Amino acid sequence: MNHFQYKNGELFCEDISVSAIAKEVGTPFYLYSKATLTRHFKAFDSSFADVDHLTCFAVKSCSNIAVLSLFGSLGGGADIVSGGELFRAIRAGIDPKRIIYSGVGKSVEELRYGLKSGILLFNVESEQELHRLNSVAAEMGVTAPVSFRVNPDVDPKTHAYISTGLSKNKFGIPINESLDLYIQADDMANIEVKGVSCHIGSQLTLISPFVETLRKVKGFVGRLEEKGISIQYIDLGGGLGIVYDDEEPPHPQEYAEAIKEEMSGLEATLILEPGRVIVGNAGIMVTEVQYTKTNRGGDHEKHFVVVDAGMSDLSRPSLYGAYHAIQPVKEDKAVFQVVDIVGPICETGDFLAKDMAFPRVEQGDLLAVLSAGAYGFTMASNYNSRPRVAEVMVAGDQFKIIRQRESMEQLIQGESIPEFVEK
Ligand SMILES: Cc1ncc(COP(=O)(O)O)c(C=O)c1O
Ligand SMILES: N[C@@H](CCCC[NH3+])C(=O)O
Predict the structure, then answer these.
(1) What task does this protein carry out (predicted)?
(2) DSSP label at 146?
């Protein structure tokens, strides 16, 4: 359930019509519903209410500080993967003791920043990272709290580009080779071993890969205990899928029940890193039709709806062939035709939808691209020198721009013409 619904033929976000927002903000823009964000966060988090757990929202999925601050106020922490995300999380008021740091390529500077900030855990992804972290911590005279991200070699049965827990993926340390690393880390002066973490992929629609992973982790924790290494945190990562089209992902409650059953007997705090399941259907992208056209070949004709948002604003369709439902903001359009909905960017791969049966729309009509709250704005770029779009949050009958549309000046901010180029 989300708060993007039609009322009298007009799409509303909570109590405000999307057209009214577009009139003030211009297009394109991302639009988030506070009530939906809150509802989805609580639905996930409260499913684990009876176990010791921490929900660390995956910042990469939707990183606006207003969104992070909302989840912080609901008791959430943050799963970060860069110094930039750490900066955002702290600015949003998230307690560093609720921040965990994943990622295969943490730089010395980023490790230092994490240590200085006093984060809860570093999810270390390689032996070299462990050594780097130990020496940075030694140099700073502190101890680094560590989980290793183990790679359980479980097939998450999702898109190949967002599968992360197979042995052929770059993430984590093969679970079978991790024991020696734990023993090594346990002896290091500036490392405190605290947990085991994993994350097998994103947009999972089955529970079984999570359960298989947790079983492997559980077995591994037993082996660690035999070596005298006790584990305080078990981090299962994120990955629960959502409905974009006709998927049937499990409800967070079902997911939680399966996990809790497997966790029984373990004395550790459970950490979860959900992203998409919380924000995916709490945000849409609004775009305006610029042109419609038909390109005819010998034996075919192709209809295009050209809109003012493209792959630089929402890259998922181009990057993964991902499906996003698209609907006109005004519902009264009745004649359907099969169209490609494309952006203004000079790439054939710049599309938001391909061969979609779509009501006949006209120049100036507003379209809502649904399920755009996760990996939407955060994956936007300035390709074709397009300023990044605005982000807006609605709460009831109010809305606020939570990120201004970029200006032309911001587009070239930091650029300069050196003397040896100037005429
Ligand atoms: C380490 C890590 N944690 C959490 C997530 C969040 O995943 P999702 O948005 O699928 O819940 C990701 C992204 O897949 C990730 O790489
Ligand atoms: N960017 C991906 C998800 C990647 C998750 C990161 N580990 C998507 O849009 O589906």
Answers:
(1) Specifically catalyzes the decarboxylation of meso-diaminopimelate (meso-DAP) to L-lysine.
(2) E
Q: Is 62 a catalytic residue?
A: no
What residues line ligand 1, using a CB cutoff of 6 Å?
Answer: 58, 61, 79, 102, 199, 202, 237-240, 273-277, 374
Domain boundary pick from 277, 293, 323:
277
pTM of the model as a whole = 0.97
> 375 C-alpha to center of ligand 2: Å?
6
User: What percent of the chain stands above pLDDT 90?
Assistant: 91
Q: Are residues 266 and 323 in the same domain?
A: no
Q: How many Å lie between the centroid of ligand 1 and the Cα of residue 122?
A: 15
Indicate whether 125 and 263 sit together in one domain.
yes
Ligand 1: nearest atom to the Cα of 202? 10
Domain end marker among 228, 251, 277:
277
Per-residue pLDDT tens for 283-313? 999 999 999 999 998 888 999 999 999 999 9
Q: Looking at the structure, do residues 298 and 355 belong to the same domain, yes or no? A: yes
Q: pLDDT digit string (tens) for 344-373? A: 999 999 999 999 999 999 999 999 999 999
Binding residues for substrate: 276, 316, 320, 347, 375
Numbered residues of the known binding site for pyridoxal 5'-phosphate? 239, 273-276, 375
* Count: domains in the chain: 2
Most ligand 2 atoms within 8 A of CB, residue of 56, 57, 60 to mutate: 60
Q: Buried b vs exposed e over 121-138: b needs ≥16 C-beta within 10 Å?
A: bbbbbbbebbebbbebbe
Domain that holds residue 402: 4-31+281-411
Q: Rounded to the nearest 10 degrees, how much is the dihedral formed by the CA atoms of 203, 206, 210, 216?
A: -130
CATH code for the domain in which residue 15 is found: 2.40.37.10
The residue whose two tokens read 């050209």 is: 306
For residues 216 and 272, membership in a common domain is answered with yes
Q: Average pLDDT of the chain? A: 96
Helix (H, G, I), strand (E, B) or coil at 336: strand
Hey, whose CA ends up nearest to atom 9 of ligand 2?
375
Burial class (CB in 10 A: 0-12, 13-18, 19+), 85: buried
Closest CA to 393 of 421, 370, 373, 414: 373
